[in-house]
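Practice set, problem 2.
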Amino acid sequence: MSSTIARIFTAALSVITVVLLDAGVAHASTGLTVSLTVDDQTSQVTTTAATVAGLLSQQNVTVDSHDDITPTPTSALADGESVTVNHTQPVAVQRATATTTEYVTADTFDAAVVELGLYPRTYAARAGSFSAHRDHAFLTVAFRTPTGMPAVGKDPLLPNSVLQVKHVRLDYAVNRHRIVSATRRTRTPLIPAGHTVVVRRGRVGVRSVMRVTRLVDGHVLRRHLISSHVVRSASARVVQVGTGPNWYGLARCESGGNPNAVNAAGYYGLFQFSASTWHSVGGRGIPTNWGRREQTYRAWLLYKRRGAAPWPVCGRYL
């Protein structure tokens, strides 16, 4: 009786073991379900792999050290995991100092520029009492295919394409320049020959000039005049050049050079006119009512008419 019970127990245990083993095999064959995205293409896959690297191997996804893989290849997989792979490609970045190889996931030249951060811009300003400067610095990027042909930003980015990066600075300078006033000379017989009199001193003008200098990689490419305008106009200096007789000597002799001199005998001013002689050359009132220029002008009219005769004593100075 006991042996029969033992055989029955053994047979039942064998059946339970087979069932448990079959259940284990069924679970192993089912594996893990993960979301796999390769270059923006997503699919749901079932895998028995324990790590991300194992998953990629099972799915025949080839990667290298430059590719962007999330999670990392050594990470353990879990059911429901999301695995992302973005393949990169090399591009040559040419600068003035060196050419480097960068790896990007971008598929166009424009996207590569953004990914590499090649468009920083800076701005600075400073001002002084006579000049103001505005500097604008930025980068320019030219695109070329692997064969060296020019490309535009929306063209597909092929492996080993070239980005030519240049540093550009625009240096704006506003400066003020002096406008030297001209000198205008006039001849007059009211001043003795060999003498000059500044009638108007004139004024120096100011011109504002804006120029921009374009520098590429530190080298001056060109300079350009932007604007030029007069801030303050210049006025001419006026000088009278004497061509007349020696009025100074005559006046010193006649009146001591005093335009208000009055002689008790009835003679007036610088050249001691009598009232009748003054009136004969167009003068009004008496000479002392007028300044030096008017008195000299009337003396010149009298001199043209009669020479030095009206001044019998001091006329020798003329």
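Problem 2, part (b): a different protein.
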Amino acid sequence: MEDAQQVTSLVDRFRLDGRVAIVTGASAGLGRQIAIGLGQAGAAVVLAARRAEALGETAELVRATGARAAEVPCDITSPPDCDRLAAAAVDTFGRLDILVNNAGIGHAVPATREAPEQFEQVMSVNVLGAYWMAQACARRMGSGASIVNIGSVLGLTTAGLPQAAYTASKAALIGLTLDLAQQWTGRKGIRVNTIAAGFFDSGMALEHADGYLDEIVARRIPAGRLGQPEELAAVVVFLAGDAASYVSGSVLSVDGGLLVT
């Protein structure tokens, strides 16, 4: 009986019942699957993105899991918008426990031809947007809360494309994670971690030129395939809740082994 109770207790640590999560970039792709996964784990989910019409589709999928969902159109490059989003989560569901900084953009442009505004746009969304969201949410979070930044293996390696802005932004996100974890884990009880995501069968990865992903899989991914969105969502659920209560300031690669090649 004691062993059974211990197993039940361990499994319960992966549940997010009673918790409230914000997912940015939730209108499609990995963000949509992350939101669904959090709902399946029991969290109420606040869905944020610039495309308001697509948020409704995600909300229906989250509610189909039995979870509550709210839609808040938001531009994360605007600090007032980020503060409004965090406030809406508390106003709607009474608390805020989890932030998933998933929104991000990128492009492939040779460094000698990349315009200043192109570089600045990527940094504004991928780094500043994540920071403004973390600030706004941390002001409202209590002890036991979790911030999960969706980074990339391209913050740690290269993959054959000219992506200076994107790789710089994802490397910066790792540095931001380390500093915020140092500031907030002990003082506020807020854990901060980054997932170094590899190539997934969703979203931006599918925008590459024909043949590029096949080459990456063949040369760089020991698992021999692209990741599935549900595999990333499962790691987000782990980092969001009590199963990862002793994990903060970590960069967890979810890449099919790409970083070992």
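Answer key, part (b): Residues 16-260 form a domain with the Rossmann fold fold (CATH 3.40.50.720). The helical segments are 2-12, 29-40, 52-63, 79-93, 116-138, 164-188, 212-220, 229-240.
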